[in-house]
């Protein structure tokens, strides 16, 4: 055994062990503070890169959700307008059928025609105001409703616009059409019947599109949640385990400090040789 005061190997070893414990303790405390087992590329470069790619997908899906919600709102407005137009056409049919009665006096026919005109003009008012965020899917040359469906924005769902304006392909009633006589009323009834059928078909198209958007939105929600769970499985810390590690490392740190203190006292034993 060599006695020296210049080199204290025991102290060096104790200091190295204490430093190692300190690093492990800092790492464990970091995991507890952040809740992450892999908080940066230094912890695990490969796992961190995978997690970052998945986080990018989640961010893209967040934009998809926003796009689907905007499209759903635009379709909801279009459907509300189409339903209102359908209701108006039904009321107009009632007026037109009543006006077919050849026994009506002039005043009664005029009154019915005025009511018919008010209902007719209301269709135009509804169609012109059926807009959401700049999108009107029921006017003449209307806007199709579109939404992105994937995290890269490459794929879309598109629901075609439906022309429900007066004089359009679905409602051939003209803006100035009235119920001047029984013959005119008879023509109006036939025209309105066709318009009701066309509007209901358009409603079916819009409703199917809205249902498709709802299904896609539900899928995106589930996909986003699944990816979030996957990220958690990759990088989240087991806090119960880390809490146990913290306790053990704190004890080791205390023991390491005591070991270093004992090792530092060893050279003093040399003094006994000179007494």
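^ structure tokens above, recovered residues below v
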């Amino acid at each position: 055994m060599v006695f020296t005061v210049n080199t204290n190997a025991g102290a060096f070893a104790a200091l190295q062990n204490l430093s190692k414990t300190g690093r492990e303790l800092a790492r464990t405390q970091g995991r507890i503070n952040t809740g992450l087992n892999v908080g940066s590329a230094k912890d695990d470069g490969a796992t961190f890169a995978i997690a970052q790619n998945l986080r990018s997908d989640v961010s893209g899906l967040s934009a998809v959700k926003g796009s689907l919600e905007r499209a759903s709102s635009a379709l909801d407005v279009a459907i509300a307008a189409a339903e209102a137009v359908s209701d108006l056409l039904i009321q107009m049919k009632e007026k037109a059928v009543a006006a077919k009665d050849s026994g009506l006096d002039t005043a009664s026919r005029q009154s019915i025609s005025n009511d018919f005109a008010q209902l007719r003009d209301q269709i135009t008012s509804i169609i012109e105001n059926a807009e959401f965020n700049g999108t009107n899917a029921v006017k003449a040359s209307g806007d199709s409703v579109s939404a992105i469906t994937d995290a890269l924005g490459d794929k879309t769902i598109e629901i075609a616009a439906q022309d429900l304006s007066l004089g359009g392909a679905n409602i051939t009633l003209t803006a100035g059409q009235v119920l001047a006589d029984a013959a005119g009323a008879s023509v109006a009834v036939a025209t309105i019947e066709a318009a009701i059928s066309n509007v209901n078909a358009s409603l079916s198209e819009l409703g199917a599109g809205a249902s498709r958007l709802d299904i896609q939105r539900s899928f995106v929600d589930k996909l986003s949640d699944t990816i979030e769970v996957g990220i958690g499985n990759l990088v989240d810390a087991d806090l119960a385990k880390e809490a146990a590690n913290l306790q053990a490392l704190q004890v080791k740190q205390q023991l390491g400090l005591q070991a270093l203190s004992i090792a530092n006292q060893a050279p003093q034993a040399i003094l006994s040789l000179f007494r």
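The CA atoms of residues 137 and 143 lie 5 Å apart.
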